[in-house]
Amino acid sequence: MGLLNGKVAIITGAGNGLGAAYARAFGAEGAKVLVNDLGGARDGSGGSIGPAQQVVDDITAAGGEAVANGNDVSTMEGGQAIFDQAMKQWGRVDILVNNAGILRDETFHKGSEANWDLVMKVHLKGTYCCTKPVFEWMRANGGGTIVNTSSTSGLLGNFGQSNYGAAKGGIYGLTRVLAIEGRKYGIKVMCMSPSALTRMTEDLPRYRELAEAEDGFPVAGLPDTIAQSMVYMCSDLCGMDKSGKVMHVGRPGIAELKVVRSDGWEPDYAYSAQDIADREAQIFFPD
């Protein structure tokens, strides 16, 4: 018996890379999968439903059940249409994986408003648009699982990715809030922070060097391997006590990422700026 037998899953950005690996793994575990993808380049340009349909064909050829969807995740109309298609096809939604994304990398001082807006629209607003109808349905129908995609670029920072990092940081914040709001309705909301070799990362120097190494790219960072972590997060193996958590998965392995607070200093008087400077060792973590 598959870990996701009888579940209905929506996966956005599932025509290539990680999303396609998730969709195939879900199909193999018994889920019915709506494969959403615009079919564009990694910067969001162009597009056709062809890649999504190819993934659907792969799933059905292996004995699974899936349908393709080419709606735009970054609009409320698109998010609603994605949900509506799953409901029309199968009558329920048990899992939503918000994976769709684009890259428009540029240093902040050279960056354009247009690229900022587009990256925010696809990543952060796209997560909102797809989650809104699903979350409302799950809230009224016994719960479900939502996994959003964040990144170390948003949680830790990365040179040249101010637009991407800001969007991914926003997705982390949204995840934390939805985990709190959804808990009493049985909605588990988590974040995946993947580090994978895909068309989104293949030309980045550190990824290219690993891919070209004698041993090849670490297996832990390949999409089919990472997909097993997504299966875990969306299955009953992963309980409600994990809601709100962020799993970093890929190279070099699997770990939880979280915001932590130092022991700090608790003043009992109206302190000065100099008092803060005098107690920096108590307030800040060491570098």
From TrEMBL:
Task: Identify the taxonomic lineage of the organism of origin.
Answer: Bacteria, Pseudomonadati, Pseudomonadota, Alphaproteobacteria, Rhodobacterales
> What Pfam families does the annotation carry?
adh_short (PF00106)
Keyword line: Oxidoreductase
The record's SUPFAM superfamilies line, in alphabetical order, gives: NAD(P)-binding Rossmann-fold domains
| Flavoprotein listed as a keyword | no
> What InterPro entries does the database record attribute to this sequence?
KR_dom (IPR057326), NAD(P)-bd_dom_sf (IPR036291), Peroxisomal_Beta-Oxidation (IPR051687), Sc_DH/Rdtase_CS (IPR020904), SDR_fam (IPR002347)
State the organism named in the record.
Primorskyibacter flagellatus
- Give the record's family classification: Belongs to the short-chain dehydrogenases/reductases (SDR) family.
Q: What is this protein called?
A: Short-chain dehydrogenase
